Amino acid sequence: MKGEAAHGAAEAAGGLALDPMHQFQIQRIIPFKLGGLDLSFTNSTLWMFIVVGVCAAFLLLGGSRLVPSRWQSVKEMTYEFVAGMMRDILGDSGRAFFPFVFTLFMFILVANMLGMVPYSFTVTSHIIVTFTLALVVFILATAVGFVKHGAGYLKMFVPSGVPAYMLPILIPIEVISYFTRPISLSVRLFANMMAGHTMLKVFAGFVVALGILGGWAPLAMMVALTGLEILVAFLQAYVFAVLTVIYLNDAINMHH
Amino acid sequence: MPQLDFSTYASQIFWLFVTFGLLYWLVVKKVLPSVGGTIEHRRARIADDLDEARRLREASEKALAAYEDTMKGAREKAHGIVSEHKAKITAELEAERTRIEAELAAKIAEAEAKTREAKEKALKELDGVIGELAGEIVARVTGDKVSEADLKKAVEKVLG
């Protein structure tokens, strides 16, 4: 209520939306309801499709020559980067999951990077998106663990080399740490994205507020922050992919 | 905070599955065959080329060894031919030399015999001339006639 008022005042004052949270607003473009569910095509949906489009353009164009062009080299480096990371952590046993991890990495990376474009929408700045992705990873890893080891996968929660009387304390801790995985995975990405973009927006507000005389200092800060945010955008995509592979590795190889 | 607006969750989850699924499908069907295939193809091609290069190098090394063998054989053969001919020529030369030397020795001996003969003949003739000359001298000095036989005896006695 208060926020609405402030928002309205700011807009009335300068015609500018200075509310740093405004950029995360979901707007319905094509309202659509199925059953009781609101499945409207929103700005978030639009940007999800743009992410897929950019990924597809990056990965499918650029040719596939024996001697690669520059574009093709970058494309192949991205591929080799994810493949190498998976090989290092998981070995050859996890080749089947490469398409999933690669898709995940590309989707998050491009979503994060597109979020850096002014006036764009950052798909990964919404907890429900990152949580859904993390939940998919969690369910996949758990399913793989049970398919591979059967009920033996429950040994995950029993740390080896620990005296028996410690187990009643340690097993609940292990269980909790296992089930908080999707939460930490999703909150890490979502919080990084939201915090970075909010901060950029706040500094951008300062630039406007201080005007042409005093606005240079926050502008310089914004330039530095933009660099940092691009690093964070890459890093968070990488961290998400690496943790996914580590969870899969735990499920497949179970050396806990 | 717009992130906590639960009314948008269904739409976001639904469209996330749609778009993520679409991208996953694209990756599996299109990207992996093209990018992964290209990388694999390139790796295989490089390995093949390296194998081919190794094979060619081995072949050239073999050819070089064969060439060196042939060269060694030819050199030995040439050496043999040269020494054989040398020996043959030396023998021929030796034979020719001994033949010529023998011929020369024969000629020398012949010439020496002829010389000796001439000398003896000359000496014999000289004996006669000396006898006559002595008879003449005796006749002039003494006025006596000395017989031929006496003269001869005397001359022979003097000359030995």
Structure report:
The complex is a heterodimer of chains A (256) and B (160). Chain A has one domain. Chain A is mainly alpha-helical and 256 residues long. Chain A is built from eight helices and four strands, in the order αββββααααααα. Chain A has a two-stranded antiparallel sheet with strand order 1-4. In chain A, strands 2-3 form a two-stranded antiparallel ribbon. Chain A is globular and about 70 Å long. The N terminus of chain A is likely disordered. In chain A, α2 crosses α4, α4 runs antiparallel to α8 and α5 runs parallel beside α8. The radius of gyration of chain B is 63 Å and the shape is rod-shaped. The longest helix of chain B is centred in the middle third of the chain and has 134 residues. Chain B has a domain of 109 residues. Chain B has 160 residues and is an all-alpha fold. Classes of the chains: A mainly alpha (256), B mainly alpha (160).
Describe the global form of chain A: globular
| Side-by-side strand order of the widest sheet of chain A | 1-4
Q: List the uncertain runs of chain A.
A: 1-17
Order of helices and strands of chain B: HH
What's the total number of strands of chain B? 0
Structural class per helix/strand content of chain A?
mainly alpha
**Mean pLDDT, all residues of chain A:** 87
